[in-house]
Specification:
Layout lengths: L16 E5 L22 H15 L3 E5 L15 H11 L9 E3 L2 E5 L4 E4 L6 H4 L3 H8 L4 E4 L10 H5 L6 E3 L1 H15 L5 E5 L4 H11 L5 E4 L2 H5 L1 H10 L6 E4 L11 H11 L4 E5 L10 H14 L2 E5 L1 H9 L8 E3 L3 H7 L5 H8 L2
Parallel strand pairs: 1-2, 1-6, 2-5, 6-7, 8-9, 8-11, 9-10, 11-12, 12-13
Antiparallel strand pairs: 3-4, 4-5
Helix pairs in contact: 7-13, 10-11
């Protein structure tokens, strides 16, 4: 699965208009009543996407930067990419006093410099999720070249991930290539025992991936909301697997359902201590409330185990960043569902589009 992707660094981009699809889905603070302002709380994904943007700007490209924030149903001011626009200006030292929305090709956004235009949240447009050919054509009309650097969204068949790639010469960004290289090495030749720890709350996306992980991992550990709400289904799913399968352990929740029990935490740690590779996606408790203890102990246990450790998913990255230990893990993936899907052997639409679109 170690794809040879077309590298944006292989062509001359000077003077070219480049549509850059990045991971801009950063945690944003709640609306502040006193000022009405929003700000980026955790810039991990933004920082990870900077090498490609910096490369393009330094090599004379005119960049149309695009991404999404959360899952809005139409326009929602609380999910505007304005905080990302301000973050970019601070980090690139762009001098802008008025962040008034303007338009490019009929699409709203912000002119941040002579070389950089940031589009507003793509998911404000119905055509993005539907991969509407008309919306993809509208996006592609803005540029000469398409670059995908959004690994976290590459498992989605959306207009800015798949549709635009069919209409323009297309390339992979620097971060996307790094994600594929590291995850391919793990999927093809992992050090065992290999343990996959899955938590979080996105049941509809993670449940099918748990089944696929049984053919890849030695142990699958499931905690959090996904464990509590799908316990019976997970067990039935596991029993139906005929070929090689992993050992499944499902955590018990405390009475308040904020966190997994100390006993479940200890059971998980015993397995993690035997691991040579650990892949973790999703906290096992409500880390914004009183459910932090289980996830904290598991994080510390993974680091003590000396296993090769990969962590992924927005909630997981934000939690580990707040603990100030994210950089102690072997590798962090900007993707959650995309990471699990790739490791389970799924073909990601965004990657396939770069390889096979004409």
């Amino acid at each position: 699965m170690n794809y040879l992707l077309p590298d944006i660094r292989s062509i001359d981009v000077k003077g070219k208009r480049v549509f850059l699809r990045s991971d801009l889905d950063a945690p944003i603070s709640e609306l502040k009543v006193e000022s009405g302002e929003l700000k980026v709380e955790d810039d991990t994904r933004l920082v990870a996407s900077m090498p490609t943007l910096k490369y393009l700007l330094e090599h004379g490209a005119n960049v149309i930067l695009a991404g999404h924030l959360r899952r809005p149903e139409g326009y929602d001011p609380k999910l505007s990419l304005l905080p990302v626009a301000k973050w970019l200006c601070e980090n690139f030292k762009f001098q802008i006093s008025n962040f008034k929305c303007t338009k490019m090709g009929g699409l709203e956004g912000w002119r941040l410099s002579d070389q950089l235009f940031l589009l507003e949240n793509l998911r404000f447009h119905k055509g993005e999720k539907e991969n509407d050919p008309k919306f993809a054509k509208k996006l592609s009309s803005l540029a000469d070249i398409y670059v995908n650097d959004a690994f976290a969204s590459s498992h989605r068949k959306h207009a800015s991930i798949v549709g635009v790639a069919k209409l323009l010469p297309h390339f992979a960004g620097i971060r996307l290539q790094k994600e594929i290289r590291v995850l391919s090495e793990v999927s093809e030749n992992p050090k065992r025992l290999l343990v996959v720890l899955i938590g979080g709350a996105k049941i509809e996306t993670k449940l099918p991936l748990v089944e696929k992980m049984h053919k890849f991992a030695d142990y699958v550990l499931v905690g959090g909301k996904i464990a509590n709400e799908t316990r019976i289904l997970l067990k039935v799913q596991h029993e139906k697997i005929i070929a090689r399968k992993s050992v499944l352990q499902i955590a018990e929740l405390r009475d308040d359902e904020e966190d997994i029990t100390p006993k479940s935490t200890e059971n998980f740690l015993q397995i993690i201590n035997l691991a040579k590779t650990v892949i973790w996606n999703g906290p096992v408790g409500k880390t914004e409330n009183s459910g932090i203890e289980g996830s904290r102990k598991l994080a510390e246990g993974i680091l003590k185990s000396k296993a090769y450790s990969i962590v992924g998913g927005g909630d997981t990255l934000e939690f580990l960043k707040k603990m100030d230990i994210l950089d102690k893990f072997s590798f962090f993936s900007t993707g959650g569902g995309a990471m699990l899907a790739f490791l389970s052997g799924e073909k990601l639409p965004g990657i396939e589009a770069l390889l096979f679109s004409s």
